[in-house]
TrEMBL record:
<comment type="similarity">
    <text>Belongs to the glutamate-gated ion channel (TC 1.A.10.1) family.</text>
</comment>
<feature type="transmembrane region" description="Helical">
    <location>
        <begin position="648"/>
        <end position="666"/>
    </location>
</feature>
<dbReference type="InterPro" id="IPR001320">
    <property type="entry name" value="Iontro_rcpt_C"/>
</dbReference>
<dbReference type="InterPro" id="IPR015683">
    <property type="entry name" value="Ionotropic_Glu_rcpt"/>
</dbReference>
<keyword id="KW-0732">Signal</keyword>
<keyword id="KW-0813">Transport</keyword>
<feature type="region of interest" description="Disordered">
    <location>
        <begin position="885"/>
        <end position="922"/>
    </location>
</feature>
<keyword id="KW-0675">Receptor</keyword>
<feature type="transmembrane region" description="Helical">
    <location>
        <begin position="831"/>
        <end position="853"/>
    </location>
</feature>
<dbReference type="InterPro" id="IPR017103">
    <property type="entry name" value="Iontropic_Glu_rcpt_pln"/>
</dbReference>
<feature type="disulfide bond">
    <location>
        <begin position="756"/>
        <end position="812"/>
    </location>
</feature>
<dbReference type="InterPro" id="IPR019594">
    <property type="entry name" value="Glu/Gly-bd"/>
</dbReference>
<feature type="domain" description="Ionotropic glutamate receptor C-terminal">
    <location>
        <begin position="460"/>
        <end position="808"/>
    </location>
</feature>
<dbReference type="GO" id="GO:0015276">
    <property type="term" value="F:ligand-gated monoatomic ion channel activity"/>
</dbReference>
<comment type="function">
    <text>Glutamate-gated receptor that probably acts as a non-selective cation channel. May be involved in light-signal transduction and calcium homeostasis via the regulation of calcium influx into cells.</text>
</comment>
<feature type="compositionally biased region" description="Polar residues">
    <location>
        <begin position="899"/>
        <end position="910"/>
    </location>
</feature>
<keyword id="KW-0407">Ion channel</keyword>
């Protein structure tokens, strides 16, 4: 009985559970999802198969979810218009909530606008153009954009120090989208895209061969390829056919081509041997291995390549994308029953092609998938601004029948052999960070990135043709073989530099000449021909200038630069009537005369009140001021110096006179006994002011240099040979020649070595950057030739060549310095004049301060009086003019007549009742002003000064009380 009850209970529970499951199934909400792919393509069929497996896997694991995805597949047949038609059908008729696809960037470019209008998310796992994701928020790029891989490619170029690359890309939305990002990435690593080749999607074999042959004529040997795998396969087959997959080349392919390279035929794989490529790093996991195993068991080999779909990043992105959409649908939850068609804001006719409403679920689904994060087969699935988060990239080397990982690139760490996120160093420039690489042609040597095309002609090196100055560059026509012979110092330097390169560069020297053998133009014309690529380089005595560097690249200079002027030598005329003035310069003469006068004036001021030798009428004062300092030249002064301050001034002055006199005597004696050399012109401004003619080499940049210095173009003459320069300098400007010749230092030294007794250099050396070799802009030879120049300079090879070619030429920079005219300048005596001037000034200040303090009451009464300013000045001057009897110095003896030696007879009569020491009332008042207001002094009371007339007492000035 118990068994029967248990059986019945079991039946009831089973029935209840079945009803419950049926109830849950009835509440399941279906999300309509459109799928637009190119089903006949490898990526399309692979993506659909992977999404089918993903759908089965997801709901087998999440069987309790209340939502389900229903896929509606459409074939776009590799056409953008078919993809758009499929999108319209899914949006209008099926009313899908989301669309997976389209497959190509060009298809997505149109379809995303439809999704934006209907507010339905368009989710693509294979459209990787960087320009797509930013146009509308309803386009989701569930794949790594092509812009995320440019850092890995640039890091490879930087690691191997390649300076130039050639870029090949297809003419499509997918192909051109990566170009600006690659250009910026190469610029960051100092690499330049020397040539861009655009291939049509349906390029013919003839077009491919034409472009490849064009690239073979270039010097660059690093090629970056970004195109679809079908066009890429044809490209490498043709490259192998014409020999571009041999030693010396480096090929780098982008992620889209690298990911599908293993699907290509064996002959294509053989042609791609040694190619480097990048593709997103797929982390190894148990889930990935299980997926690969189950995929093979599904018998999906009917579609091309599906049996190996686990190796393709596009299949893994398709799998992860469907999982992400299923998770987002579950987060949105059960949908409400569909409403009637919601039209847009504009009323549309039923026949309107775009008459479809806006989805209510689409915005919610877009938000949910944007917030979805999980670990998928391809790694971490996470969207940032509608785009898959960037990750690390593998660097793959195509070797044999397989692919070899040689490094891993991380945006933060650069290239590493193994990915270690805990590493702190960031060094992407070391080749040690990568494993060994097999390059095209089975070579293990790293391609240098460029070489002279062997199938092309030799490098044509332009050489200037010169009628003179041939010691450095010489072009001689050999009539026997009807070919030019090119030699010279700088030609040998160039040949030695090319021999020092680590590789062979075939070249030929081509004179820059007309059919008649004359020069074809100036040096600027030759450089412009290099710019036009009529010459591959130019050598010779070519100076680096800023203007020329705008058109070509220069190597490091191999000869010194600088411009100097050469002028004729003249001999100083010792019979000149003004020869005695030449030992001292004009400013020294004027300064000496000024100090003579100032010193005499200072001594007179200091001695006038205490010494009879410095007294007398005004004419005697002026004579003494000028006579006394000049008498010290020969120490012939006889005046007795009384004041100590004056003695100090005279002692210092005589020391200055001793040195100045000795210097002048020595210089004058030397000039009169030795014939001296001097330049005819000493300053550029003098040449410009006098409008003299100047010269330089024909075709040289110095013409522009002289014009910038201020010379009139009509006053500049050019010459082709040193003989013409010598003749012109000898004649001078007034006789149809030139006054100065300007040239660079090497030529100037050579010219002076042959004419040491006739010419000399004057003025400053104007800096230039020296002589260098010329190459077209961006030429890879510039760096290697520059390094060779440095090497030959350091080991002395260039010096040996110079000694060989110029061994018979004596170096001469002009006449001996000891033979030059020496004129003493003020600079040599500034210290002496400063000392004597300072002592004199301090002595005068002390004297004046003492004088003003001693007679302060008198000066106060004079300044407070109501007389005119002129009268005040006259009073002070007359008071200063009087003899200082209180100085303690012995007085002069008076004559018997009682007349003072320094006063006139009109005001020198001594009153009979005054003592002898008050023999002159005028002198008493003037010399002792402090007694004017002393009412108790008998001497003052005995004279009625107020009643004296101005004629009787001209030296007395009384302040008025009125």
């Amino acid at each position: 009985m118990k068994l029967i009850l248990l059986f019945c209970a079991s039946l009831w529970l089973c029935s209840t559970f079945s009803n419950s499951q049926r109830s849950v199934h009835n509440r399941t909400s279906n999300f309509q999802v459109g799928v637009i792919l190119d089903l006949k393509s490898v990526v399309g069929s692979m993506g659909l198969s992977c999404m089918s497996v993903a759908l089965s896997d997801f709901y087998s694991i999440h069987s309790n979810y209340s939502t389900r995805l229903s896929l509606h597949v459409r074939d776009s047949q590799e056409q953008a218009i078919e993809a758009a038609a499929a999108g319209l059908n899914l949006l209008k008729d099926v009313k899908v909530d989301a669309i997976l696809g389209p497959q190509k960037s060009a298809q997505a470019n149109f379809l995303m606008d439809l999704g934006d209008r209907a507010q339905v998310p368009i989710i693509s796992f294979s459209a990787t153009s960087p320009s797509l994701h930013s146009r509308t928020p309803y386009f989701v790029q569930a794949a790594q954009g092509d812009d995320t891989q440019v850092g890995a490619i640039a890091a490879i170029v930087k690691t191997f120090q390649w300076s130039q690359v050639v870029m090949i890309f297809e003419d499509s939305e997918y192909g051109s989208g990566i170009v600006p990002y690659l250009s910026n990435a190469f610029q960051d690593v100092n690499a330049r895209i020397s040539y861009k080749s655009v291939f049509p999607v349906s390029a013919s074999d003839e077009f491919i061969l034409k472009e490849l042959y064009k690239m073979m004529t270039l010097q660059t040997r690093v090629v970056v390829v970004h195109m679809s795998h079908t066009l890429g396969a044809r490209l490498f087959l043709k490259a192998k056919e014409i020999g571009m997959m041999e030693k010396g080349y480096a090929w780098i392919i982008t992620s889209g081509l690298m990911d599908l390279a293993y699907l290509m035929d064996s002959d294509v794989a053989e042609a791609m041997q040694g190619v480097l490529g990048v593709k997103p790093l797929i982390p190894k996991s148990e889930q990935l291995r299980s997926f690969s195993s189950r995929l093979k068991k599904k018998s999906l080999e009917k579609s091309p390549g599906i049996g190996r779909a686990d190796l393709s990043i596009f299949g893994l992105w398709a799998y992860d994308t469907l999982w992400a959409l299923a998770m987002a649908a579950e987060r949105v939850g059960v949908k409400e029953p569909p409403k009637t068609l919601e039209n847009s804001t504009v009323n549309l006719n039923v026949s309107d092609l775009f008459n479809f409403g806006k989805s209510e679920v689409g915005p919610k689904l877009l938000k949910a998938i944007s917030e979805t994060k999980f670990e998928g087969l391809s790694g971490k699935f996470r969207l940032i601004d509608g785009k898959m988060e960037s990750s690390s990239y593998q660097i793959i080397n195509m070797v044999g029948k397989g692919q070899k990982e040689v490094g891993i690139w991380n945006p933060s760490l650069g290239i590493r052999r193994e990915l270690n996120l805990n590493a702190t160093t960031h060094d992407t420039s070391s080749r040690e960070n990568m494993r060994s690489i097999i390059w095209p042609g089975d070579s293990t040597l790293v391609p240098k990135g460029w070489e002279v095309p062997m199938s092309a002609k030799k490098l044509r090196i332009g050489v200037p043709v010169k009628a003179g100055f041939t010691d450095f560059v010489r072009v001689v026509k050999d009539t026997q073989v009807n070919a030019p012979t090119i030699s010279g110092f700088y030609i040998e330097v160039f040949k030695s530099v090319m021999e020092a390169l680590p590789y062979s560069v075939p070249y030929e020297l081509v004179p820059f000449e007309n059919p008649d053998g004359s020069s074809a133009g100036t040096y600027n014309d030759l450089i412009y021909q290099v710019f036009l690529q009529n010459y591959d380089a130019a050598i010779g005595d070519i100076t680096i200038t800023a203007n020329r560097s705008k058109y070509v690249d220069f190597t490091l200079p191999f000869a010194e630069g600088g411009i100097i002027s050469i002028v004729p030598i003249t001999y100083e005329d010792v019979n000149d009537i003004w020869a005695f003035l030449k030992p001292l310069k004009k400013e020294l003469w004027l300064t000496s005369i000024a100090f003579f006068f100032l010193t005499g004036l200072a001594v007179w001021i200091l001695e006038h009140r205490v010494s009879s030798a410095f007294r007398g009428p005004p004419s005697q004062h002026v004579g003494m001021i000028f006579y006394f300092p000049f008498s010290t030249l020969v120490f012939a002064h006889r005046e007795r110096i009384v004041n100590n301050l004056a003695r100090l001034v005279v002692v210092v002055w005589m020391f200055v006179i001793l040195i100045l006199n000795s210097t002048y005597t020595a210089s004058l004696s030397s000039r009169l006994t030795v014939q001296r050399l001097q330049p005819a012109i000493t300053d550029v401004s003098e040449l410009i002011k006098n409008r003299d003619f100047v010269g330089c080499q024909e075709g040289s940049f110095i013409v522009d240099f002289l014009i910038k210095k201020g010379f009139d173009k009509s006053r500049i003459r050019t010459f082709t040979s040193p003989y013409d320069c010598d003749e012109a300098l000898s004649r001078g400007s007034k006789s149809g020649g030139i006054s100065a010749f300007y040239d660079v230092i090497p030529y100037s030294k050579l010219f002076l070595s042959k004419h040491c007794d006739k010419y000399m250099t004057v003025g400053p050396t104007y800096r230039t950057d020296g002589f260098a070799f010329v190459f077209p802009k961006g030429s890879p030879l510039v760096a290697d030739v520059s390094r060779a120049v440095i090497e030959l300079t350091e080991n002395g090879k260039i010096l040996e060549i110079e000694q060989h070619w110029l061994r018979n030429e004596q170096t001469c920079a002009g006449p001996d310095d000891n033979m030059n005219s020496i004129t003493i300048s003020l600079q040599s005596f500034k210290g002496l004049f400063a000392i004597t001037g300072g002592v004199t000034a301090v002595s005068l200040l002390i004297f004046i301060a003492s004088y003003l303090y001693k007679y302060r009451d008198f000066h106060r009464r004079v300044s407070n009086s109501r007389i005119t300013i002129w009268s005040k000045v006259v009073a002070i001057c007359r008071q200063f003019d009087q003899r200082d009897l209180s100085s303690g110095q012995p007085q002069d003896k008076l004559p018997e007549s009682g007349i003072s030696p320094n006063t006139s007879s009109e005001n020198s009569v001594q009153p009979p009742d005054l003592p002898r020491n008050h023999s002159n009332s005028n002198e008493i008042v003037s010399s002792a002003p402090e007694e004017l207001h002393d009412a108790t002094t008998a001497t003052i009371h005995c004279l009625n000064l107020e009643d004296m007339s101005a004629v009787q007492h001209p030296g007395v000035i009384l302040p008025s009380d009125n």
